[in-house]
Amino acid sequence: QVQLEESGGGFVQAGGSLRLSCAASARIFSGKVMAWYRQAPGKERELVASITAGGATNYADSVKGRFTISRNIRANAVYLRLNSLQPEDTAVYFCNGFLGSAPVWGQGTQVTVSS
Fold it and tell me: For residues 1 and 43, which has the higher predicted lDDT (pLDDT)?
């Protein structure tokens, strides 16, 4: 049973944009917070952005002003808009939520930015 499913990754040139989508099960979407993480080759997974059930958002310093996280309550979905993409944004992007207190991860979607 798929709990979180990401889509929207791809290959873009520097300066381009992408919109990532995360479809969540209702139980996960109703949790306190959902987030996007990313992991580049050879690096640890890092938090990119998060959004609470109340709509409060938080961003990593490296993406502030370029990325926007949002949620659609009707669709049980979370989105990440990526603007002004740079080669250092290349990574696998993961959607994250919670089932109770247990973290749940999607399978990830690849974002590749060429210079």
Answer: 43
What is the mean pLDDT of the segment spanning 65-87? 96
Region 39-57: mean pLDDT is 96
Q: Closest by alpha carbon to 4, among 73, 72, 77? A: 77
What count of other Cβ atoms lies within 10 Å of the Cβ of residue 41? Answer: 7
Q: 41 Cβ partners below 8 Å, 6+ apart?
A: none
Neighbour count for residue 53 (Cβ, 10 Å): 13
